[in-house]
Amino acid sequence: MLKVNGINAFYGKIQVLKSISLEVEEGSIVTILGANGAGKTTTMKTISGLLKPQAGSIQFQGQDVTGLRPDQLLRKGIALVPEGRQILSGMTVLENLEMGAYHRKDNEIDQDIKNVMERFPILEERQKQLGGTLSGGQQQMLAIARAILSKPKLLLLDEPSMGLAPLIVADIFKIIKEINEAGTTVLLVEQNARQALKISDYGYVLETGKMVAEGSSQKLLNDPRIMEAYLGRK
Ligand code: ATP
């Protein structure tokens, strides 16, 4: 579904991505692991169009989408839940959800908002509250729910578990799995490597801007070298 081929990305003169390639098969969950500063967020920004690659190509559903803008990619079915969630804190929960569907022209938006609220009852309960008054975990749910309302084929999630308490983290991973089972392909960036690999099919390991390892999630979970370097020794 997604094929990233040899992309380079720079901030000014500093090269942050060095010929990154990866593939995401339709229906799967793929995780990118890596330490702080490895280039995970930059990879997501490049795939979602926030940053233009200086070399290489990105194909989505057989089409070359290299260099397209985020709004163009959203229309093609690629939605990003950015690091740090970035919900609109001065707008209500309901308004945040409506923003997720702003580019849609179909008649199913109200029904989809209802469905999303059924899936996330806390958002229904708090629909009139300002986004900024929600807890971290609730804001993450709102950010994911908002992205779902764009009806993505591919959902990009940048560190969805960051800064959340362990019980909430477990909820978020469960929600990601459910979204995938309902038919959305997922590309996930995580530092919470063990839990991310447990719900995913395939993983890549990024180190200072280069892919240094890849394999089925099972294989990565059972690789002592990777476990030690990226997953801790638990
Ligand atoms: P983290 O988990 O800390 O977000 P990451 O793997 O997502 O790490 P990136 O955010 O992609 O890493 O950053 C990769 C490198 O690019 C880092 O060395 C970082 O300092 C640098 N970098 C990130 N954003 C910018 C920017 N806007 N301008 C200049 N350098 C940047």
Automatic annotation (TrEMBL):
Ranges of residues in domain ABC transporter: 2-233
Xref: CDD domains: ABC_TM1139_LivF_branched (cd03224)
Keywords: Amino-acid transport, ATP-binding, Nucleotide-binding, Transport
GO molecular function: ATP binding
Cited SUPFAM superfamilies: P-loop containing nucleoside triphosphate hydrolases (SSF52540)
Family (UniProt): Belongs to the ABC transporter superfamily.
Record-given protein name: ABC transporter ATP-binding protein
Source species: Cytobacillus oceanisediminis
Family matches, as SMART domains: AAA
Gene3D superfamilies the UniProt entry points to: P-loop containing nucleotide triphosphate hydrolases
Lineage per the UniProt record: Bacteria, Bacillati, Bacillota, Bacilli, Bacillales
